[in-house]
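A quick aside before the break. I want you to see a complete sequence-to-structure record at least once, exactly as it would be stored in a machine-readable document. Don't worry about memorizing anything.
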Amino acid sequence: MSKITIYQKPTCTTCRQTVQLVRDSGADFTAVNYYEQPFTKTSLKGLLKKAGLSPKEVLRTKEDIYKELGLAKKNLSDDELLDLMVQHPDLIQRPIVVKGETAILARPAESVKSLL
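That is the input. The structure line, written in tokens, reads:
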């Protein structure tokens, strides 16, 4: 059975709920705080590809940095968005959960049950 990796921000409520659901299931997992162990552009691109998601689909549009950068008014390419997400991790929806060759954006937290 593949180990589960949860890419998260520990202060995020949904991340904490997801970690607890996986812990309660007894599954073997690792929680990665992507603020302490930042994504590279390549690793983030690979995760999104596994999840079948585009950078626009995981963009946190309610974050202050989104507004500060004026992203609503810009038409950026996926590569440009990935660069910004690596530079400003608050722009990334979370948690992203990986098991083997499958990745999901666990929002709501209960969606992680599909991997358990």
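Two observations worth writing down. The first helix runs from residue 13 to 25. The first strand starts at residue 4 and ends at 8. We'll return to this after the break.
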